[in-house]
Amino acid sequence: MNFCQAANTDFSTFVGSQECDQGSAFGGDFDVSPCFTHYGCPNEMSDLPGNGRAAARGGAASRIPRCAPPQRQRQTPTTMARSPRINCSFRPVFHERTTNEDDSVLTQQLWKLARKTGHLNLSNKALAKVPERLYDINEADADSKAVNLEQLTIKEEDAWWNQVPLTNLDLSSNTLTHLSPKIANLQQSLTVLTLHDNALVELPPEIGKLEKLMRLNVSHNKLSQLPRETYSLPELRHLNISYNAFNELDPDISDLHMLEFLDAGHNNIQSLPGGIGFLVRLTALLLPHNHIKELPPDLVNMRSLQKLDLMQNDLTCLPEDMGLLRKLECLYLQHNDILELPNFEGNEALSELHASNNFIMTVPKAMCSNLPHLKILDLRDNKITELPDELCLLRNLNRLDVSNNTISMLPVTLSSLAHLISLQVDGNPIKTIRRDIIQCGTTRILKTLHERALAKAKEDGSDVAGSTLAAGISVTRLSGGQADDGELPNKYPDSSYQQQQQHQFQYQHQCPCQYHQQHQGGVAPHGYMYKSLSQCQEYHEQIQRHLYKPESYQSSLASGQQSRECRGVMYQQQQQHPYQQKHHYQQQAVHPRWVYKLRHTRTLAVNLEELTEVPEQVFQIARNEGVHVVDFARNQLSTLPSGLQHMHDLVTELVLSHNLIGYVPQFISQFTRITFLNLSNNLLSDLPKEFGVLNTLRELNIANNRFEFIPNGVFELQGLEILVASENHIKMLNVSGLKSMPRLSTLDLRNNDIDLIPPTLGNLTKITHLELVGNPFRQPRHQILMKGTEAIMSYLRDRIPT
């Protein structure tokens, strides 16, 4: 039966005594009794004699006559052929698209919008073929040219000379199988072509004529190769061919000299071409879910590579000279057959290393000293039997996952990792720590390891665990976590200077009460050591007086009270009067290993030292060595060290978490290159008004402070992408302020005092990650919060009053 004719049924055929002949309606292939066998056809209802009611109503029938059905003659094929055929025409929901239907998708409204903005979105239109008129969109149509001058004066924006050429074409999520060669008509304007989620089996060679094309997305199709002309696109920077049927990458891909992003994941690629190393501008290479067994040697020539994704392949090893990828930041190696990791010498920028579900048995000790900026180390589901003590050299490590291995003991040096917030050790036969302690989580495990480190140091007779517990800046800390063995690398230019400086470097901590007690006790002035700040009554009194009064900080600095602060300095002592020694610090010699580490890592990291003040000499030396990362987490600083001003044009990352900071000085606005600022776990309740001028800041962490509102200066940060303000006392949301932040994508407001979520928050569609758990509001409910950001935003938008 032709269903396309069912919707045009001609009901005018049912007149007179015409019956609904099912046999003729369905082709006359079977015999069916008439529809109205007992009561007759409703159209034949008429007055019958004796029907009083019908007569009273002027002859109109009031009920179906109850008469015997007339005798009907059985229809023969001859009579059936003479019966008129009913035209049953209707269009089902699922049917084959016609060319006219595809052309009708490009409405006049879309046409005008595209010619006005240069963007045309035909996504998810069920197109089987691209409308032919689309390829002529850059040409002036007849209607535009026929408009007279008077009409153009009234509506000049519609004039053909004011129209914008098409630059962005989105044909994704349709049913396209081919693309017309007429795509070459857009060669002078098209820069973005999106064709993902179609049924394309090939692309026309004419696609190579799109000289200005910069982004091409053909993912989620049925392509097995690209036309050779594609690799001659001179401006192509972004190429996505994932989720297709590629068995290999064409060697000509190395001709795409401007390519910066390549995603070839979820294919059947067995190997990579040898010339892929010529893609020297590539910053992201994504090859997950393939069958690659070996990487070509010239892969390490991609000196701009920042992200390399090789998860779900068949790799057994990595190139030995991985260190040549000096800009590599993220490396994904999950679900391979890797047996060992390289030393990563030279990969100092690496911040994430994911190597779970492999066959790794050991963690290289040299790797720990070569990755100073590593933040995430994922080694779960491997064959690791032991963790080295050198893990403490990964001083920026935030997350360490070694679950489901065969580790029996955790090194106590893990307790010295100041930024470690997640330690996963489940699934290991650990015998040295009770199971209930492991179940309590990271904080309890690290506390146990720290207590054991103290006990071990006490048994060994060391000076209170050496430099780990010293209040001043120790050589161990300033040298990047490495113990001072008195030796320098051979490549250090001033290694001969080492033999001239064999004096003992000592770190002094000066506080008036400590100096008085130790001096009265007969201790030599140059040998006095620190007393714990928890026993310093004067320091606590000062904190109580000035903690929440910003003006107190400024007045104290101006009046010279800085000499009362406890401070730690690294220098060689001079034999001078105790009073002079108290007020004058002269740096005779700086330890060469410390200077070398500053120059080598570009990082000044001093953690777990109970510092209350840092001398300016430290920052002057760090500036001379080009340091751009400053980390003073887990100390007892009450404000930002004034010496930081010397590095205002160098610092890109500043970490001051886990201190006693109650006030941020105004000079923070001078940091013109800062991109990351961590002020979490302090005593802050506000930020200076000048804070909003930090246009380069991309991530701000003010969690676990005493904020009752998000400071107004934060809303002026035009470049901020991540804002973490959890664990505070924020009571309300300033949606208009958040709306003024165009790049904000992550907003973490967990565990605050927010009692109402404005529905207009749902209009901030640029926020892709929103955390609201742990607040006292009633709507949205917890079940919606657990569904994720998209569900929360949709829920809020539905409740915006219209």
TrEMBL record:
SUPFAM superfamilies: L domain-like
Sequence ranges of Polar residues compositional bias: 72-81
Region named Disordered: 52-82
Gene3D superfamilies assigned to the protein according to its UniProt record, in alphabetical order: Ribonuclease Inhibitor (3.80.10.10)
Any one GO CC term of the record: cytoplasm
Family annotation (InterPro entries): Leu-rich_rpt, Leu-rich_rpt_typical-subtyp, LRR_dom_sf, LRR_domain-containing
Skewed-composition ranges (Low complexity): 52-63
Pfam family, one: LRR_8
Record's keyword terms, sorted: Leucine-rich repeat, Repeat
PANTHER family named in the record: PTHR48051, RAS SUPPRESSOR PROTEIN 1
Protein name listed in UniProt: Leucine-rich repeat-containing protein 40 isoform X2
Organism name: Drosophila kikkawai
